[in-house]
Amino acid sequence: AVVSTQSTGDGCVANPTSPPNILIPPKPIEATYRDQGMASCFVNGNPQPTITWLQKDMLIHADSTRHYTFKFTDAMGFLVIQDMQPHDAGKYSCFARNGLEAVTADTTATVYVGGCDFESETLCGWVQNMEHDTFNWTRVRGGTPSWNTGPVGDHTTGDGYYMYIESSYPRVP
Fold it and tell me: How many angstroms separate the first and last alpha carbons of the chain?
């Protein structure tokens, strides 16, 4: 890295400039489904770098749903993700730039959906996309309606709910 300085004429050096440097990269983001996830990175440089965040190499914009929020203090940038969903999993990048250079540091987000099962009628917020779908998922307890197919119960207790798609002939979508 190149560091440039400006001489004051009296042998002193003023206003040294330096490219951004990520001193503390973001740690992995780990959150349970529908909880909050957070990442931070600590940068320095002169002039002070600005920090932006990327998800899967795309710039993240703060949105009106407040799913993503940003907080900044001096040289620390925070990304807060509200209501973590499975699509929030993947690569995130802290992007710092100050006019001299730009640097990035990557991390990953993991969304744990454990604790969510088919016992709840809401299916933990899962909704089937019916737009281009010709097979329907069905929530059932016990055996499937078609003879000699499917399980007789769920895999955890043997008496709970599970999801299935009817594939026996004639299948009714």
Answer: 63
Copy the structure tokens of residue 55. Answer: 């998800």
Distance of CA 151 to the CA centre of its chain: 34
pTM: 0.60
Please report which helix (H) or strand (E) contains residue 37, including its range.
strand 37-46
Cα R_g (the chain), whole angstroms: 26
CA 56 to chain centre: 9
Torsion of CA 161, 167, 171, 173, to 10 degrees: 60
Are 117 and 74 in contact, with CB atoms under 8 Å apart?
no
Which residue did the predictor score with more confidence, 81 or 171? 81
* Beta strands per DSSP E along 89-133: 90-97, 102-112
Report the b/e string of 104-118 with b at 16+ CB within 10 A: bbebebebeeeebeb
Token pair of 122, please?
């809401």
